[in-house]
Every structure is written in C-alpha cells, then in structure tokens.
C-alpha cells in the first residue's frame, strides 16, 4: 500500500526534519529522486522548461559519476540539487559508518562535477536511523515530504497516482517523483497533467 501523504502528526513528532514549507504561501516544492538517468531526467527537464517551473533533484552519486553532463544540465536549468547517497542505500540496513561514507561520497562527486556545496539531504526510501541523523553535518537540511506520488509502483495506474497527488497537494507541499527507469512508465503519463493542475490552481513552484 502506498501512503500518498504524511499524517498531520508526523511533522510534530519528527520535527528535526523538513516535511513541508510554509503553509501560508501558495508555493509547491517539486522533487525528483534517484537520477540523473538518461531518457528520464531529460524528459523531466523538458517538461519543467516548457511549464517554466523549478524543482529540486536529489541525485544518486553514482549516477552523477556516470552521467555528469546530465547533472550539469539540471543545474544549468536553474534547479536545486540534493544528496541522495552514492549508491541509494537503505539507512535501516546500513552500518552508521558506511552510511556516512555514502553521504560524503555523494557530496564529493557533486562538488567535483558541479562545483557546488550541497546542503540538502534526503535518505533513500525515507529510511534513516536516529544515530545516523545525529552524525550528519549540522549544516545539512534533511528533507522528507508530505506528498508521495507513488510513481515507482507499477501496481498503480497513472490516473490513480495523479488523483491522489492532486488530492493531497496544498500550500508548502513537498512532492516526491522519481527520475529513474522504474518510475518512467507512470511518470511519462502523469507528470505533465500534474504540472498543468498546479498552474491551473495558481501554485508557484520553487526550489527547496
């Protein structure tokens, strides 16, 4: 079962991480995890440019290493960049020392490739131990989400993903999409319709 939105009490309990931005401002924060991936990230960039929208891309370090020009294209288009570990590791299943090395390796390849210092981190699968979180550089903001599109779950239809995503979108929402092959069958059908909805509803998109 996909939980498309975070229950309202979550941010109160887990208040050391970011679940959403200001609810009083009609801005939406689109995010794309797991890229850059040829054919998918390009597709996303084209739609965002067409709609004149901005997003934040939480990149996997190994994909930045494999596809540096695509990572540069994301930055050149004015989008935000975040750290998503080097090998997309699950914090619950990874020793703390190795997990921190994964974060650092991703930081290093982004710095080497894009010449920027990334200050946003999203744990793959949203899974991170308290002990790992406490050891992350204090200057980094841990970004979660309040709307999960479920684009990676092929058991769902694009129509259902779109409907649920629209239902739970509100001021300040952080929306999770994935620019990777597994998600592409759903993403390529629903993304433009969702962006169209945001424009029609008067939402502005911004980077985190």
From TrEMBL:
Q: Which PROSITE patterns match?
A: NODB
Q: Which GO terms describe its biological process?
A: carbohydrate metabolic process
Q: Which UniProt keywords apply?
A: Hydrolase, Metal-binding
Q: Please give the InterPro entries that the UniProt record associates with this protein.
A: Glyco_hydro/deAcase_b/a-brl, NODB_dom, Polysacc_deacetylase_ArnD
Q: Does the keyword DNA damage apply?
A: no
Which Gene Ontology terms of cellular component type are present?
Answer: membrane
- A single Gene Ontology molecular function, please? metal ion binding
Q: Does the keyword Hydrolase apply?
A: yes
In this chain the NodB homology domain maps to 26-206
Name of this chain's protein: Polysaccharide deacetylase
Q: Which organism is it from?
A: Belliella buryatensis
């Amino acid at each position: 079962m996909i939980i498309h939105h975070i229950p309202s009490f979550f941010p109160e309990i887990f208040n050391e991480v970011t679940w959403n931005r200001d609810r009083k401002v009609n801005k939406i924060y689109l995010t794309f995890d797991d890229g850059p991936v040829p054919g998918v990230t390009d597709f996303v960039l084209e739609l965002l440019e067409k709609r004149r929208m901005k997003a934040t891309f939480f990149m996997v370090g190994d994909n930045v290493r494999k596809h540096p020009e695509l990572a540069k294209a994301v930055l050149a288009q004015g989008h935000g960049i975040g750290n998503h570990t080097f090998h997309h590791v699950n914090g619950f299943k990874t020793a703390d020392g190795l997990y921190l090395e994964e974060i650092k390796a991703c930081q290093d390849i982004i710095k080497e490739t894009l010449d920027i210092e990334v200050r946003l981190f999203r744990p793959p699968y949203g899974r991170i131990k308290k002990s790992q979180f406490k050891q992350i550089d204090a200057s980094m903001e841990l970004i979660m989400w309040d709307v999960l599109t479920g684009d990676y779950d092929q058991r769902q239809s694009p129509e259902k993903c779109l409907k649920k995503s629209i239902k739970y979108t509100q001021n300040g929402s952080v929306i999770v999409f994935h620019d990777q092959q597994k998600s592409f069958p759903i993403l390529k059908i629903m993304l433009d319709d969702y962006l169209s909805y945001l424009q029609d509803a008067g939402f502005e998109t911004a980077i985190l």
